[in-house]
Amino acid sequence: MAELELAPLVKTITVRRTPAEAFEIFTAGLARWWPFDRFSIHQAETATCTIEPRVGGRVYETAKNGEEAPWGTVLAWEPPGRFAMTWHPGRPASSAQDVEVRFEAVPDGTRVTLEHRGWAKLGAEAEETRKSYENGWAVVFDVRYREACS
To answer: How much is the pTM?
Structure first.
């Protein structure tokens, strides 16, 4: 019997930035706001995270000792409107979900929508992992990214 796919996890915020600024902060500026101490592979030993700005580019963190750890691969690079990547930090690439971030101009700035989908690839861990990300993205996206855009 095929596993039922869990609904995508969707988070939407509005920031007082242009779409181009919000896109740059999320992508090129990720290392300035991502809470590595809680949400990374090397945690306190993480030095930075890099998103190579092209389809097929790597998304990876680098530890203070220079060791690299993959997070995913860029699937869409469409500044200033859309960025998407596979997502498997600390897991095999075969278990990757997709994370897509869209940037839409609105009267108050930019509506930024993050969608995390593809949970079935995690098999028996899918539901528990999705619940964990519900809380994780609340910190990373709703709080830290929003603050970085302030």
So the answer is: 0.95
